[in-house]
Description:
single chain, about 270 residues, alpha/beta, Rossmann fold, four-stranded antiparallel sheet, 9 helices, 10 strands, about 35% helix, globular, binds adenosine-5'-diphosphate, binds magnesium ion
Amino acid sequence: MVPQPTAPRLALDAVHATYVEDGATLEALRDITFSVPDGELVALVGPSGSGKSTLLDIISGLYAPSSGQVLLDGTTLATPDRLGRSSYMHQRDLLLPWRSALDNAAIALEVHGVPKREARRRARERFPEFGLAGFENAWPAQLSGGMRQRVAFLRTVLAERPLLLLDEPFGALDALNRVVLQTWLLDLWERERQAVLFVTHDVDEAVYMADRVIVLTARPGTITHVEEITLPRPRTREMLTSQAFHRHRVALLEALGLLSTPEDSVEVSS
Ligand code: ADP
Ligand code: MG
């Protein structure tokens, strides 16, 4: 028997998205087609307003596309049926200030019907791995920015869905904390190897982490370029200075229109 190729964990087929506001229709995404197989880390970059968050909302089942299909494991699922099928870390993933770090993390399981005691036990188990041992009872306000991100991240991962959607997971952090968390996320992913789709506006972060980088244009977001990252795994910080890294970086900056020759710089800035 010929073995069947396994369907990708996530596939998008000609997805369009619109918002209607004050009677006017705004086109947010146009004709988005790509897939994320299991074990791949795919980055999504694009200017602000290019529909990156909208795309993750659609995949997670929070928002319905105006046309096109979203397939999970090869099956087209209607928008409400996609809810709960992926782990989604939103762009503004605020922790609940009145819940401890532990209880903030445990929410991920509680919403899936796990009893509170069991949810806390399973969340507590993973605190050391997330560099949070000893901070179970801390309030969000007592934690550093990097630690709050890790609690939010732990909450996302605890749901144990095979598809991870991350919207600018390190967006609010300073450069040093970003580097620490990027490396830490890569380590975690090397062990678990879920399908990951993550949004970033940092081209270096995209090249350093991803197998593939998808570039969206300004609104309506359309795919203008896909960069296959050839750097070997596991990735190391030393790769940031390699020629291959530089080539990927330049290709992406060009695709984003951020490298312009003097002749067209006027056009870009207008
Ligand atoms: P990105 O995450 O790439 O910055 P978004 O997906 O947040 O982009 O937004 C894409 C476009 O859709 C933007 O122009 C934004 O203003 C608009 N938009 C996003 N959410 C809504 C909404 N709930 N209602 C109306 N317009 C929206
Ligand atoms: Mg966004």
